User: What shape does this take?
Amino acid sequence: MPAARRTRIALALAIAACSEASGGPGNGSPGPADFTVGGMAFHVSSGAVATVGGVLTLFLTDQPDGCLAITYTPVGTATVFSLGVAPAADGTTSATVVSPRPVPAAGEAVGKLVRATHGVPDAGFDAADGSVSWTANADGSVTIVSLDVGFAGVPGRLSTGGWTIPRC
Assistant: This one.
């Protein structure tokens, strides 16, 4: 087999693996979801999860690989919804979305929806109310069981569930 063909096959397999890891087809997550918040269109195609300082942060994005979208600055325009969740001390895996603050209290979540071009934000809305529930999986991924978020001063809600997103 020619080297160029082997390279193309290896690249196709790598792309397929990234799709599987980022909420793509085959891992139990729903397909893409579309929302409009304050006139801003948001097409969710993948997600990621990270934990910093005891706050679990869930990300949903219009990029094909959620981990890459939050680790690097995407070229072009990218939309990312982030929700920082402070789990309750009793281990409850649900939280109430509250108005923005630097760090959520136990059992609360704070978030925002941001559209940026070349890493420079050009539109965004703060999460104002709602709820989230999740399941932590043995492999480090998180399944968003249900998510319902309203945004400050604008029409439109982000309501979804069933997304299994990888830890980055």
